[in-house]
Amino acid sequence: GHQSESRYYDGDLNDVTSPGIYSVTGKATNGPILDGNGVTVLGILEVLRRFDGVNVWQRYTTAGTGATLKGRTFERVYTGSSWSEWREVYTSYSLPLNLGIGGAVAKLTSLDWQTHDFVPGSLITVRLDNMTNIPDGMDWGVIDGNLINIAVGPSDDSGTGRSMHVWRSTVSKANYRFFMVRISGNPGSRTITTRRVPIIDEAQTWAAKQTFSGGLSGELSGNAATATKLKTARTINGVKFDGSANIEVFPPGVPLPWPSDTPPAGYAIMQGQTFDKAAYPKLAIAYPSGVIPDMRGWTIKGKPASGRAVLSQEQDGIKSHTHSASASNTDLGTKTTSSFDYGTKTVSTFNHGTKSTNTSGNHTHTVGFAVSVQSGGADYGVPRSDKGATTTSSSGNHAHTVDIGAHNHTVGIGAHSHTVAIGSHGHSITVNATGNTENTVKNIAFNYIVRLA
Predict the structure, then answer these.
(1) Which residues form the Phage tail collar domain (predicted)?
(2) Coarse DSSP helix, strand, coil percentages of the chain, rounded to the nearest 5 percent
């Protein structure tokens, strides 16, 4: 029972196999518990060895100063060439303290939902943002530094099963959560089932249908408020809410658009068919002929003040109107054609033959004269004179023959151009027909249905 060594031990506790009692410092390693700084808690180590000299027993009693670090005892054994884990020896003081019962217990630095050892009956505190592998369905809203409290229930018969309460330590109603959790299976492959417990003083969203066999009291919001008001029989806009008859939002005969070729039960597509007026007396009030109008390709128009009867048809048409069309006048000015040299052109050759003039030119000449003669002969020597005129014979009539001969002429056309005056003018415009076969507006095709009643 005496101190085995006269000095403190600060080595590896795995190496202490000699029987005795040792004073352990914070420098020692492989101790059973660390303080908040990660240092081995001061303590006293007791060592016993079996007679075979192989198996060793160690017991460690803490000598810390804090409420959770003093007077706690841990044991382990060395056998089969290895040390077992340190196991705490619970006392009436340490057990409630370790479980968080009757005293403060330090919060965990981290908690992995798949691997943490949830000791039955323990109370656990850990920061929300220090939890990992949070189970599906455990919706905490905002992940922050709020503390999460866990109260672990007793173990199930399976040995690995645990049931526990998990809740958030906060004063905020918006972030408060309370869950019932059950885990089962080996660490690392656990099955975790989470159910959120509703809080009575906050709004709830119910994913599943709720049945309240005992009834509900108080004012309800939404459609439930309407139902509450209708608890007392009344008539609204001519409709009786007293349970005496079915409520008809649309009277039989009203055409209703329907986005399917299959009408709902109790309705018919309006396509000109007859119906049994005895079977559907309310529909017969709207259509006394027993024929449902054919609404295929038709739209509904309010009946004018005059000129139309109810259910009469009006073919498509547009309001009479005129169009005006014109083309603006444009003076195209004077345009010049392109220049082209036609060269020298030769007329065709033609022989005009020999041409003769008519016979003409025949004429005479009149000549005047004076005569001096010797009368009686030369012998008498008596001179005599006389005057007169004479005409020559006709002569000079003639003609000319001219040989024209074959010849041609050449004409020089020369390079030249023409100008054309187009002038200001107008055009006539023809407006062609266009459009659909009938007047329409942008539309989506629906079937018109009518309720059979």
Answers:
(1) 253-300
(2) 5, 35, 60
Output the six-digit token pair for 298.
């038709």
Q: Tell me the three-class secondary structure of 353-369, residue by residue.
A: CEEECCCECCECCEEEE
Dihedral sign for Cα 72, 77, 83, 87, please.
Answer: negative
CA neighbor of 68 nearest in space, from 39, 101, 94, 31: 94
Alpha carbons 106 and 104: distance in angstroms, whole number: 7
Position 30, amino acid: N
Q: Which residue has the tokens 């000079």?
A: 396
- φ, ψ at 77 (rounded to 5°): -135, 155
Residue 225 and residue 116: Cα distance in Å, rounded? 48
Which residues contact residue 175 at a Cβ distance below 8 angstroms, ignoring those fewer than 6 apart? 140, 141, 142, 144, 146, 168
Q: Which two tokens stand for residue 111?
A: 């908690």
Least confident of 9-23, 222-236, 323-337: 222-236
If DSSP states are collapsed to H, E and C, what string results for 307-334?
CCCCCCCCCCCCCCCCCCCCCCCEECCE
Parallel/antiparallel/unpaired status of strands 340-341 and 415-416:
antiparallel
Cα 311 → chain centroid: 43
Homologous superfamily assigned to 237-305+444-453: Phage tail collar domain (3.90.1340.10)
Rounded to whole angstroms, how far apart are CA atoms 289 and 120? Answer: 82
Q: Do the beta carbons of residue 407 and residue 428 sit within 8 Å?
A: no
What's the pLDDT score for residue 1? 43
For residue 364, the SS3 value is coil
Amino acid identity at 243 = G
Look up residue 93 and give its DSSP letter: T
- As a whole number of angstroms, the distance between CA 310 and CA 285 comes to 14
Comparing 277 with 212, the larger pLDDT belongs to 277
* pLDDT at 306 > cutoff 70: yes
DSSP string, 257-322: EESSSSPPTTEEE-BS-B--TTT-HHHHHH-TTSB--B-TT----PPPSSS--TT-----------
Distance CA 328, CA 261 (A): 55
Cα distance between residue 314 and residue 294, in whole Å: 13
pLDDT per position as a tens digit, 148-163: 999 998 877 667 888 9
For residue 22, the cross-strand partners are 45
For residues 188 and 192, what is the distance between their CA atoms, to the nearest angstrom?
A: 11
